[in-house]
Write a structure and sequence with these properties.
It is built from 13 helices and no strands. By secondary structure, it is an all-alpha fold. α3 packs across α5, α9 packs antiparallel against α11 and α10 crosses α11. The longest helix has 37 residues. The relative contact order is 0.14.
C-alpha cells in the first residue's frame, strides 16, 4: 500500500512538474511587439531610414554650418564632390542662386516632415471622429456620414488641391490645411468598420450596463481598440501628404520660395536638369527615400500588430 501511494505521489509530482514547465511564459505587449518588430526586415528598414532622416533634419545645424537661405551668385551651380569641379566646402553642390544644397536638403526635410505630420494630425482627427460616430451610433448618423465619405471619395484630391491653392493663395499653412481637409477619408472608413465590430462587444455592453456615459465608452473602450489600424493608416497618409506637397510645390502652388521644400527644389532645378542633373536628382532621391521609409514602416506595423503576425 505504501509502495502504491509513493508511486502515485511520484507520478503526481512529475505531472505537476511537467505541467508547470509547460506553462508558457507571458510577455508584455511591448515585449511581444519588440520581438516581432526585430524579426520584420521591412519594419526595421523603414524605421532606420525614417530615423536617419529625422535626426539629420531636426539636427540640421549640427551637420552643416551653411545657411540654407544665404545666396552667393559667384558660387552658383557648383557640382557635387563626385564631379571633377566639386569642392568639399559644398560637397553636394549649390543651386542656381549659390545656396548650399546640403543645407537646403536638411532644412527641406524639416518642412516635408512637418507637413506630413501636421496633415495626418488634422485629417486623422476629422476622419476618426466621423468614422467612430458612424460606427458607434449607426442608423441615420451612419447614413449621413457615409454620404459625406462618398462625396469626398468622388473628389479628385490633386485637382481640388490645385483649385483651392490657386484661389486662396499659396503658403505653408494653406498647404497643410488643404491637405488635411482632403485626406481624412481613409481614417473615416477604417474607424467606421473597426468601430462597428467593437460597438456590440461584451465589454462595451458591460460598460453600458454599469451606466458609463457615451463619451467614457468611446474614449476608454472604443478608441484604444481601434488605434492600431489607425496608426497604419496614418503612416500611409503621411507619405501621401508628402508626395502631394511635393507635386503642388513642383507646380508652383505649394510651398513658396525661399523655403527649401524638396518639391520646390526639384521645381527650381528642372530647367537645369540636362546640364546640372544633380539639382533634381538629389532632392528626388531624398524624397523617394523618405516616402519609402514611411511606407515600409507602415507595412511593417500592419504585420507586427496583426493578431496572427501576418507577413
Amino acid at each position: 500500500m505504501s509502495t502504491t501511494s509513493a508511486s502515485g505521489a511520484a507520478t503526481t509530482t512529475a505531472a505537476a512538474a511537467a505541467g508547470f514547465d509547460a506553462v508558457p511564459v507571458r510577455r508584455s505587449p511591448l515585449a511581444r511587439f519588440t520581438k516581432r518588430a526585430a524579426r520584420h526586415p521591412g519594419f526595421m528598414a523603414g524605421a532606420f531610414i525614417l530615423a536617419v532622416i529625422l535626426v539629420m533634419s531636426i539636427g540640421a545645424p549640427l551637420f552643416t554650418a551653411h545657411d540654407p537661405y544665404a545666396q552667393d551668385i559667384s558660387k552658383r551651380l557648383i557640382p557635387p564632390i563626385w564631379h571633377a569641379k566639386g569642392t568639399w566646402e559644398h560637397w553636394l553642390g549649390t543651386d542656381k542662386l549659390g545656396r548650399d544644397y546640403f543645407a537646403r536638403l536638411l532644412y527641406g526635410g524639416r518642412i516635408s516632415l512637418m507637413i506630413g505630420a501636421a496633415t495626418v494630425l488634422l485629417s486623422g482627427a476629422i476622419g476618426t471622429a466621423l468614422g467612430v460616430a458612424a460606427g458607434f451610433f449607426g442608423g441615420r448618423v451612419d447614413l449621413v456620414i457615409g454620404y459625406i465619405i462618398n462625396v469626398r471619395l468622388a473628389l479628385p484630391v490633386v485637382l481640388v488641391a490645385l483649385a483651392v491653392a490657386a484661389l486662396v493663395g499659396t503658403s505653408l499653412n494653406t498647404v497643410i490645411v488643404v491637405l488635411g481637409l482632403l485626406l481624412w477619408d481613409r481614417f473615416a472608413v477604417v474607424a467606421r468598420s473597426t468601430t462597428q465590430q467593437i460597438a456590440h462587444a461584451d465589454f462595451v455592453s458591460a460598460a453600458r450596463a454599469i451606466g458609463c456615459s457615451t463619451r467614457l465608452i468611446v474614449f476608454s473602450e472604443v478608441l484604444p481598440n481601434i488605434i492600431n489600424p489607425l496608426i497604419v493608416v496614418a503612416t500611409l497618409e503621411m507619405a501621401h501628404a508628402i508626395l502631394l506637397e511635393a507635386a503642388l510645390s513642383f507646380l508652383g502652388l505649394g510651398v513658396q520660395p525661399p523655403l527649401p521644400s524638396w518639391g520646390l527644389m526639384i521645381s527650381e532645378g528642372k530647367q537645369y536638369m540636362f546640364f546640372s542633373p544633380w539639382v533634381i536628382t538629389i532632392p528626388g532621391v531624398a524624397l523617394v527615400a523618405l516616402v519609402l521609409g514611411i511606407n515600409l514602416l507602415g507595412d511593417g506595423l500592419r504585420d507586427v500588430t496583426a493578431p496572427d503576425n501576418r507577413s
